[in-house]
Amino acid sequence: MKALILSGGKGSRLYPLTYTNAKQLIPVANKPVLFRVIEAIRDAGISDIGIIIGSGENGRRVQNAVGQGKRWGVDITYIVQEAPLGLAHCVIIAQDFLGDDRFVMFLGDNVIEGGISNLISDFRDSDHNCQIVLTPVQEPQHYGVAELNPDRSIKRLVEKPREPRSNLALVGIYMFDENVHSAVQAIKPSWRGELEITDAIQWLVEQDYNVHPYIHRGWWIDTGKPIDMLAANSKVLEELTPRVDGFVDKDSQVDERVFVETGAQIINSVVRGPTIIGKNTRIVNSYVGPFTSIYHDCLVEDAEIEHSLMLEHSQIIDVPTRITDSLIGRNVEMHHSELKPRALKVTLGDNSRLGLV
Fold it and tell me: Under a CB-based contact definition with an 8 Å cutoff, are residues 267 and 251 in contact?
């Protein structure tokens, strides 16, 4: 089997972080989401991976970060999508790479509990022409939705229906054989102007191909929005095996659910997990609360932060209010100033959000 990872898109719902970084490269528990996807595919026994990227700067950032796949023991082929014309369009432009092989298509900003090894094994050993992954959600109108027959076979698939007939959303993981190439050529663009993969799968259903629905009962998160990124970070942090590879002084309190990476220093501070402190990061006279990921080369001094993501080379110094439920980008500086008159002084990029109490 082969794998096709979709890693294009601007990530506009995560602005301003994604002005300067691809959304798939934002770390969850200090590891970029895209890296987790590659590891899940490798662990499922697949080493031939194609990655769909955009033609702009974010595409180049993905290539620079991932390289040719040597660190994971896989081979990476990059396929450029010139415009966001839909998931089915990604299959069309990847046909030369895919050939007639069975393959898994995985959205590069999705995180799923338990990986995909069992899914791949089931599909590889079956006679299914297609296997889709479904999970119950509270707001199905935001997803592709599957309606099932009484015998649990697929009746209908609809992309982002205004009035959903089911709460079963399509998780961003799909498995196909070579018949999908006929399906993507047979469909027309949707009202969104895109070739929808749901329409291609519906075509397979209507042509009596064997399309198998797999109901996933664990957690699954599409990290497209800040609240989802924080939720995914919390879930993955709970799965980490805690350890202390850095330095913790005798005046600090670090509980057993904390992962302290190499070169990190925790000095006269309280850190409560599940939490990860990145390489060469310093926590000084501070409190770091549960469900927090602080990436490499950061500084938190005389401050408090919890349930947040803090990216590399950022500093929080002498901030009197606890920071919570926040995404803090790269090279950010937050500090308290004694200069008069007292005032809030900020430099915020486009589409920033600032909450004050």
Answer: yes
Q: Tell the CATH topology of 2-236.
A: Spore Coat Polysaccharide Biosynthesis Protein SpsA; Chain A (3.90.550)
Per residue in 87-118, pLDDT (tens digit) is: 999 999 999 999 999 999 998 888 888 788 88
- Name which CATH class applies to 240-335: mainly beta
What's the whole-number mean pLDDT along residues 200-206?
94
pTM of the predicted structure, to 2 decimals:
0.87
